[in-house]
Amino acid sequence: MRMFKPAVTAIALVLMAAPALAQVPRAPDGKPDLTGIWSNASLTPLSRARGVASLVVTKEEAQKIADGTAIAGVAADDPEFNRNARYSDPNKGAPPKGGSDFGLKGYDSFWVTPGTMLANVKGEYRTSNIIDPPSGQLPFKDPAEQARKGMIGFQRYMTGNAPYEGPEETAISERCLIGFGQTGGPGMLSVLYNNNYQFVQTPSHLMILVEMAHDVRAIPIFANAAEARKGHRPAAIKPWLGDTVGWWEGDTFVMETINVNPLQAENQSFPLSDKGVVTERLTRTGDKNIHYEFSVNDPETYTQPWKAELSFYPTTQLYEYACHEGNYGMHGILAGAREKERQAAAAKPVKAKAVKGGQ
Predict the structure, then answer these.
(1) Beta bridge partners of 221
(2) Whose C-alpha in 66, 230, 338, 355 is 20 to 30 A from the C-alpha of 299?
(3) H-helix segments, the chain
(4) How many CB atoms within 10 Å of residue 309?
């Protein structure tokens, strides 16, 4: 007993000195409970900005970067940013013919809520979501080609250079088919606004309702990875947000997504081929945090698999995303296209009709 008591005392002292273990809420079936309303809003981009060398920065450095980060990607010291970071003038009128009124001129600061600080992941302020490769950059096989495709899509959307003669010519997010900027996943990223989610967990499914464009992922839960992969749909089915199945690995919920719809795969924050596989992991680490990571394995697009990390933290509520309600843009697009057709038809020369008997 004399030898036992000092040992017990030493163990007790160690336990008292150690930080308290985070209490993870549990569902009735004993699994960590992911249910709740969460946000992943932050100013941290997917890829690290040029000139930023380190993934992790101090709080002071993070604040400096955040203070210099502009809404909608415009430099904070740009006079255009300062002039337009206020409510729009409702009496301004339409832009000049061939001009654009996008960006902060169309989306004033009232609408834009991307967050106010860099993402805090595992207690660290991060300069990119990508953690591997260490450069923080997407490891494209052909960077020039991907940049060209991305710029074409960006210019088409920002400047309105597309013919826009039918609803299919507008971007899928503009048509409200899925949200802007890949908030719905696979690879759930934060964007300019509406970075809120509702998770509802049952023993058989995890439902993720995305505030942006009210996208929904209903993910079936299987006993293990092998069973889950048997649950994928036929390859011919390529739904929006992909074909996702899930399973638990200890206290981490794992989701695997394949067969992302090609239109989405070409127009999201990072491209995917039809061979691409995205694996997401949700780990509740405490009462106020879910650690979220995803990895992309797509040998047709990238030189290596790559990985990103974010955090979800509690927020208050989701708001209705009224994407097309009151939208007069589509009516204007179609009306303008039909007017062009009428003008073209009216400009065609009228052919003389043949008269019987040569008269």
Answers:
(1) 246
(2) 230
(3) 4-17, 59-67, 79-84, 143-159, 225-230, 262-266, 329-347
(4) 22
The span from the CA of 359 to the CA of 353, in Å, is: 11
Cβ atoms of 251 and 284 within 8 Å: the answer is yes
Angle at 286 (CA atoms; ends 258, 190), nearest 5 degrees:
45
Which CB contacts under 8 angstroms, 24+ apart, belong to 263-266? 263/172, 264/172, 264/178, 264/240, 266/149, 266/153
C-alpha closest to that of 188 among 310, 26, 33, 321:
310
pTM to 2 decimals? 0.80
Instruction: Compute the distance between CA of residue 14 and CA of residue 127 in angstroms, rounded to an integer.
Output: 36
Q: Strands, E, within 55-204: which ranges?
A: 56-57, 120-121, 124-126, 130-132, 196-201
Over the stretch 40-68, which tens digit does the pLDDT of each residue have? 999 999 999 988 989 999 999 999 988 87
Q: Which amino acid is present at 349?
A: P
In sequence order, what are the beta bridge partners of 121?
124
119-157 pLDDT, tens digit per residue, is: 999 999 999 999 999 999 999 998 888 777 765 565 555
Give residues with Cβ within 8 angstroms of 269, minimum separation 6: 46, 181, 182, 187, 189
